[in-house]
Input
Amino acid sequence: HPPLGKELIGAAQAALGPTLTAARLPAAAAALAGGLLLWLWLSRAVAPAAGPLAALLWWSLPSVVAFPEALPAGPELSLPTRYALLDPLAGFLALAALAVGWWWVRSGRWVAAAGSGLLLGLAVATKLPAGLVGVVAGVAGTAAALRRPGGVARRLGRAGGQGATWAVAGLGGVALAYAPMGRDGAVASWSAGWRIQRDPGGGGHLVIVAGQRTFHPPWWALGWWQYASWGAAVTTAAALAVVAGLALRPGLAGYLTAAWLLPLALLVPVSGLALPHYPVIWRGPLVAAVAVGAVAAAGWIRARAGGGAAGRRLAVAVLAVALAPVGLLA
Output
């Protein structure tokens, strides 16, 4: 894997000692920061209720982190941030790249383009699949620049310039992560990482999908693990919320949905690899899409019911369905 996550874990152990607590601290800090980021971002971009709902889902929903040897025992569910995994770190950085990318989409600011690219570069320098999450910010920001007022030449120049700024900043983020290793060390690390990643993709990696052991997971394996993490009731509620968001808030909901659906659909066909904790990398845009849809649906129902007591009761019922994942954890 790229070095940034391991550098952060090593720095924590260097500062606090070689303990499990120190090793797990970076992932725990990323979990706390990710929830706060969702709270701040969606409270301003959608509605005051959307931020805390997304943060609550981010902090509390479990994920498949491993499989025991005995298949009848089923998958092991846990909060992924309890472990010294790279995925929570990459997931937080990818989420931050998306949040700043949405600022870019809405404002057209050059600094937002650079910030989103830099954060995505750091995410990729933690774990490569994060690139499939954050690339949505680059595409959406560049497309938004093309639609802004001005002549054709001005719009093309602005879109090309901001897109290039985003890409160069991303490369800069990757370079920052590899800088402590020096040029020769960085080249050797990248070459070795590519070779190691390529070999499991060819020879396979033992995983368990839908109760079956396999070295070559099917294309739907990541979706299965996501379903195994949340269960039928939670997955159904989340799917309904996402569909509601796409219907009622297509801009932001579409942006978020693309950010989690792209890696979910393409990672296995592209790399040939899949592990049960990979969905942690895109859990940020996924829970954000659920929160946006749930709050949008509640607002729509309340408006159609006249905004009185009946409308409030229906809106609360919709949010209660969205909060079902939290209640089912007990």
